[in-house]
Amino acid sequence: MDEIAYVVGDATRPSAEGNAIIAHVCNDIGGWGRGFVLALSNRWPEPERSYRRWYAERETNGFGLGALQLVSVGDGLWVANMVGQQGIRRSGGRPPIRYDAVKQALTKLVAEAQSLESSVHMPRIGCGLAGGSWDRIAPLLESTLIAQRIAVTVYDLS
After folding, report:
1. Helices 46-56 and 36-43 meet at what angle, rounded to 10?
2. What is each CA distance from 116 to 29, 47, 75, 124, in whole angstroms?
3. On the CB side of 86, how many CA atoms lie within 13 Å of its CA?
4. What is the pLDDT of residues 45-56, one digit of tens each?
5. Are 68 and 112 in contact (CB under 8 A)?
6. What confidence category does residue 158 fall into, taking pLDDT thresholds of 50, 70 and 90?
């Protein structure tokens, strides 16, 4: 557990024994409909429903950049909706990814993964529609999850 494991495969089908959390980055405007979230919604309806409800009730529940929502999708399997993207479009030449918010959400994910005795699985979060760089995301995983000896697997589609 000293480093991120990289595999070719589908992040919605974690290759793990024991409990697993599938983590991904969401935006802060309630949008769900492009990118990895489509793969999640094709497997389970609850992560999208929970995210949309969380957004709709945001005045009272802590929704916002850096927030984390854990959604159970099966026995020993959860999806972590992490709000790490401001909007869905570039603004002033800046992509929607907010690295500080991703780090805040990952820090919260550490506590959840420890509590559930879970490994964490993900695509290259924040590097698709959010416009982030893996060279900046990977160190965030290392300083949060990996530093706390939580197994992390990153999936690249073939």
Report:
1. 120
2. 29, 18, 12, 23
3. 10
4. 999 999 999 999
5. yes
6. confident
